[in-house]
Amino acid sequence: MHGVMNKLLRFILKNVEQGAATTCYVALHPQVSGISGEYFADNNLAKADSLGRDIVLAKKLWDFSMNWTEKNTESPNIVI
């Protein structure tokens, strides 16, 4: 059963190189230089789904992130 699942997941999931391809493309390719604030998927300009465009949800995430980072940077616990 484990082998069958692995074979099925290969068709759905990306390997490391495939997963990094869009990030590398957007960071390095001259065709997209100067493009900012856009969403890319599989090396193409794409439209984010409804959750990715939800302004209210984005504000909640921003507020949560700011609150969490403020709490966790006041007295950092650095272990060396």
TrEMBL record:
InterPro entries with a match to the protein in the record: TIC32
Keyword entries, A-Z: Oxidoreductase
GO molecular function, a single term: all-trans-retinol dehydrogenase (NADP+) activity
The protein's enzyme class: oxidoreductase
Source superkingdom: Eukaryota
EC numbers for this chain: 1.1.1.300
Record keyword Transmembrane present: no
Annotated protein name in UniProt: Short-chain dehydrogenase TIC 32, chloroplastic
Organism: Stylosanthes scabra
